[in-house]
Amino acid sequence: MEFLSALSPLFFLLIAFGVLVGIIFGSIPGMTATMAVAVCLPLTYALDLTNGLALLLGLYVGGITGGMVPAILLKIPGTPSSITTTFDGYPMAKNGEGERALKIGIVASLFGGVFSAILLFLFAPVLSDFAIKFSYVEKFLIIFLALTVIASLSGNMLMGIFSGILGVWLSLIGTYDISDGGNGEIRLMFDFMEPYLESGFSLLPVLIGLFGLGTVLIEAEKGVKKEISSQSLKMSGQAQFSMSVFKGKLTNLIRSSSIGTFVGMLPGVGGSAASVLAYTQEKNFSRDSSQMGKGAPQGIVASESSNNGLTGGALIPLLSLGIPGDSTTAILIGAFTLQGIQVGPLFIGDNLDTWYTMVFALLVANFVMFAIMFFAIKHIAKVVAVPKYILYPIIIMMCVVGAYAINYGIMFDVWTLFMFGIFGYVAHKVGIEIPPLIIGFILGGSAEIYFVKSLESYGDFMIFFTKSPIAMFLWGLIFMSIAFSIYLHIKGRRQQSSEAET
Amino acid sequence: MKKTILALSVALAGSAVTSTAMAQDDAPIDGNLRIVIGSTSTGGDTYQNSEIVAQELSDKLDMNVKVDAVGATEAFKTLERNDDGNTMMIFHDMSYLGHLYGVRGYDNVFEEFNVGPSIAINPGNAYLVPKDSPYDSFDDIKEAVADGERVRVSIQPGGVSEIGFSAMKNAIRIEHPGAEENLVAVNSGSQSDKNQQMFDGLADVINGSVQSNEQFTRLEEDDQKAMKFIWLTAREDTIKQTLEEGMGETTREELLEYTEPNVTVTQDGEKNFTFDKEFFFIYNKDMDQEIVDYMDEALADIYDEGEIQETQKQSFFIPNFKPSDESREDLKQKMNEYKEIIESIDS
Amino acid sequence: MSMFEITIPFDQSHLFFPRIITWLLGGLFVLVLMKYARPIMSKYRSGGMTELLDLEEFHKFKFFGTIVLVALYFIMMDVVGSWFPNMGFGFLFVSMPFIFLMGMMYVHEITKATVTKIVIVSLVSPLLAWFVLARLFDITLP
What we know:
The structure holds 3 protein chains of 3 kinds. Chain A is mostly helical.
């Protein structure tokens, strides 16, 4: 524990500051953990490595957690990985249980974060050796597994699948990017669109367009009713938060955190897949999942513990291979290089003190996050009480900032936000389902790369089945997931018809 | 109206002009300076390099200088729209290599834009093989392909990663005509994809860098992740300028074993091919010559002071300041040389 | 040799997956049409577009007002922003009237109190956002 003596009060202050700023960034629709880390990176130039990392890890943890706040209270995922939090969080908030939902989310986040930090500490090298067993084929199957959730998430199976595929299709518009291994050619557009659509639609503007502006438009059509916001306030009489809500959810917590850590560890699969996978696995494997999507705490638990599980997970390949597991850790590489520290397979052995400090900072950040959030929640939850004529213009303004800033200042992203806002409204009217669509959109790009690269490399469709035992295992999960969603829909239909008879 | 807004904005920005070396009243640019870069990564070498220069410029010009990682396509577009000198671009050789390789979105940078001063070199561009590979050097590879073996090289097509591959192919064409067909490119994306292709046995050689692959070269041979360098594309002189410690545990002396003349990749039968990844400014074509000169002068001052060199070397970059005219000519010549190589292997 | 073998030429690889997806999407669309065309048509016949799209209480002013206002907001932000390159003033100065107008459009009772609230919010929130993000964190804004 020698490294502890090197820590100063500044170290803890910076973690706290980082977590706080991270939470604020995460809570603003359109601002992400990645952005928080990116904008604060220059602040670390003046700090030494230990303190710089304290700040950045605090931002990371805070940013990922903060995403749940607008997801639960406003149905706008603050970061892409909190999309599944909206499924159950928002219904709870609408029932006046916003505070309870947030508290459940925080406890789950804390569990996921600490769980993954421990895995990181104990097994980083072993896990990264396991992670490199995942070639294009296995990565494609993981994405495919995540895509099968579309079926079980949709209200109407046919429309849900249609929406999901539409999402995939939309994500393919633009360039087949050379930095992902593509050939840099464009597709799925007419010539006149080229100057605008070359880079395609970015995820974040699409996300906040659909959820943010789309929702505002739906409300505007109905005349922006006055009463809805105040109804969420009546917290009395509703169920209060108590730890007993976690009774029987240990399996869920461990499973979801493991999924989060594991997906975070696979470079290129993308963090958003983690919460989607965890959410569906909970839906498929829990004893009673009938309430999921209507305000069930278990949904929040799955979603939030897995997306905080990401934090430790994404650091595994960074620290044991020198390869970032997600976009946020990609920026951390910059912080290391600026301090003259090399990350790679020998990082841990060469820099034991830094390594201990990082894990320690990660743990502290999780507890600080818990402390800050737990006491701030009462006040944060009041956001829903802000009258809509004030709230909506501000949401739109912040959405604009987020869309414009996500790719460091591109005006087309703001127009993407506009287009998908209107699309979100139209989709709502014609019955296109947004959650499957957005999941398709998130996963579409990587699905393509890994699918095409698998075939390019092996030249045989059968490779998806014969590549490795891991592939077979993933197929097992895929079939179970599909079978389960079919079963759910049949059950749902029977219930409907029996209700109709009575 | 505009005036009121301006007055208000000055008050808001609180930008009290303090007098330093260059910030006179007649400075040709004021307000904020935005540097867009050709990469979308804020962890990569382009960003780091630009950030180092931006910080120095910010002090020197007494302006806010902000680096935005918008990526090549968007950076060129942004630059095209802004000729006022408040938006500039920093990028590397990809800006003309992309054009040579015919990548979409890359016009001839010398015609469509104004190439400005060079600032640094990243000497790390490298090619690696697995540690237990039958090939120990580029010579082994040449022999293997001459014997009809297929050697697969994992690269990201269309740029810095491909030029070394083209050079190897060209060298084989010169020494063993016809055998160059056996050296094939495996197209992939990020460094992690390239590494993964090696681990999966899908590539025999990968493009990488000293910075991100050095630790892999220090692993034991029985580790499936272990690699070894076979070639650094930088000039010998470039590597000689790195700090003596080199990178990680690999000293400068050891690095020099992998550059020419110890590794020979011939360019035309006589001269050895080399490639230094240079970073330079790109301006809008119509930007005032006055601003070009102003920037040259500011950068010359910064490099004269000598601090920036320390920072660059710490981050494994080689300081490489050349004012606009010199830089433009050198890069043009570089482009012409590479053009020949690419054309000769295409035919 | 098997029927599952395939080679994808690299220069055409950008079309491979999009084609599969486009066909899949087209197929699903036909299925959707087959399943829903009839109920949709009968609904349309009985109640027209209003019934079909659930537009009974369609607030034209607020709905189209929102779209127009947001579009204007985005356009003007870019225009004003280009007067002061890279300062973020486009965002700052256009957000203020936007928030004010949108607030006025959405508010139900126009009283002294609500209008004061809207005015304050429309001045303070863009300024705060701009100051924290553009000044403190150096984020590029329009």
